[in-house]
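**Sequence, structure tokens**
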Amino acid sequence: MKIGFFDSGLGGLTILKSVARELSEYEYVYYGDTANLPYGDKTEEEIYRLTVEGVRYLYRNDCVLVIIACNTASAETVRRLQVELLPTEYPDRKLLGVIVPTIELLEFSQPTKVALLATKRTIESKKYPRELDSKGNGNVILIEVSTPELVPLIEAGNNDEATRRAISRIEAEAGDSEVVVLGCTHYTQISYSLREYFRETKVIIAQDEVIPKKLESYLFNHPEITSRLTRGEERKIYLTKHRPDYDRLIGQFLGGVYLDKETEIGRDLNSLM
């Protein structure tokens, strides 16, 4: 059985790339709901319905563990899926999000100001501050910065402009923050340039660096899941809608590692189901 990744678009490919690099012995399936991108302008019920469709697809395609790599979907659906969907339809499967593992890094001995860069829908969900409170991270002062404009820029390949706008928003709204959390998988594409700009003045937390270590720890602590995972080199990508420019983006997000030889792209998802 495989590990599945669900995302509203292509941003989660950065998580898949880093996980597959660190945990190369397992097989992976990626589902990108590009036909309904973006999720940020949808209602909670719409996001839940679309995420359920993607999660069911991954389970039907032999995934024992699914990771919701989209922060918007993770904020709105993970707990509900774990309570409502899995016990009734997939009691022997597991599902994880990306927000809780990120929050678990934010433990400081002294009060620390943390800037959260995320989409409008993720900010509105209040998932990050709720999880901070539940984890008892009382020394974190969270400054939420809504930056939905970064996603279309990054998907258009304009990372320089995305970096410029991110820097402008950080300096204007959270200039005295010591830590910046990139709360969208797309934003991992500009983590290096942000570090180059801020250098030692701010710590940049990117989820493509967080999730592999957390997943490795999870698998170590859950041998009942690990024992069911098949070993191999299969990596498959399924998109609900294909566009020619997605080939460039997939190559950009994966760094050319899996494209061509090891990755299959589902140009028409319905024909593959």
